[in-house]
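Sample entry (438 residues):
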Amino acid sequence: MKPVNIGILGLGTVGGGTVNVLNRNADEITRRAGREIRVTMASVRSLDKPRICDTSSIKLTTDSFEIINHPDIDVVVELIGGDTLALELVQKAITNGKHVVTANKALIAVHGNEVFAEAQRMGVTVAFEAAVAGGIPIIKAVREGLAGNRVQWLAGIINGTSNFILTEMRDKGRSFEDVLAEAQKLGYAEADPTFDVDGIDAAHKLTILASIAFGIPLQFDKAYIEGIRSLTTQDVTDAADLGFRLKLLGIAKHTDNGVELRVHPTLIPEKRLLANVDGVMNAILVNGDAVGPTLYYGAGAGADPTASAVVADLVDVVRALTTDPENRVPHLAFQADALNDTVILPIEEVSSAWFLRLQAQDQPNVLANVTKILGENAISIEAIVQKAPHQQGANVPIVILTHSVFEKAMNQALGKISKLPEIEPDITRIRVEYLGSD
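Predicted structure, serialized as tokens:
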């Protein structure tokens, strides 16, 4: 059969890795897809820049629209990132009747609803496995492998940069700023690390996973996002003393009242598998009513791991080229006209356990006053640890672990506790999730 011609937008780390995987495994990929997949064009910023892949058989251009508008290109692979130019290019490719493969989580999370609607109208596919968790085939697992389940919740470590930072803080007692600087030197973090350490990257990915898991439209703007900038080595140490590990988690839950969609630092019991995912690795725990908990682990970034997901999407697209567009796997797992407009819960309506650390003056009745306020707000306590002050006459650190409570109740309680004259107003608070182990 006639080979399928591919045009790649962006020939950087992932683009070069995609070419390498396609070349290295060409025979195997052809056997799986049923047709040869051939990269014939690629857009680049500079024609003279050294590449990590062989481009001798690829026409390079600095004009991405040359690829989008070329009549011989069957599938466009978008790897330039962002949601401005990339959106324009993807929309034009769809209008031109070309299938699209993308690794762009921001594009899908923010503009996916409109992109998929236009793709359905044009009878083309937009594949995006590489947009979430790099080489882990989590999209296909949730969308197809768990199609017989009602997914109840999922939780994931889906940003390798933040996980690397928290691992180093725990294992070596280093500060956030120190580890972030190393992450930037190693290439794990960008010069501007905002998307990674402030939780935005993880929220993009969580938005996509929640939509596929629960059959709801993409709603990134309603996700609660909290990053790791404010975390200290003391937070990590205190968590370990109580038998927990501190991770930046993306959590989505389908409750009777609506869907929780949140990214924030989270304490997890140290015996949980997810708590032991370290360094730059990613992992997602998905709980279905039929299968129970399933864990997906692997490299969340990098040239070959992400290229693995891109090529898998290419194989799927090639397999589906001759199928009826109305009978392809839906972009968001559920048929487009069957998505539920389920409400996304505000964070105040979310219930979780809490880790609290207070700095108190060494005076009588301080602990009694604190526990009284917690009790008045129906917050029950699981454990209290009063630590020795760091020096004579200094404030006494008090660590409190609570049972699950709605966030609005915790906000009210901490508002009152912070006004106690014997308590420093800056109270550390971190959510705790047992992930089915409680």
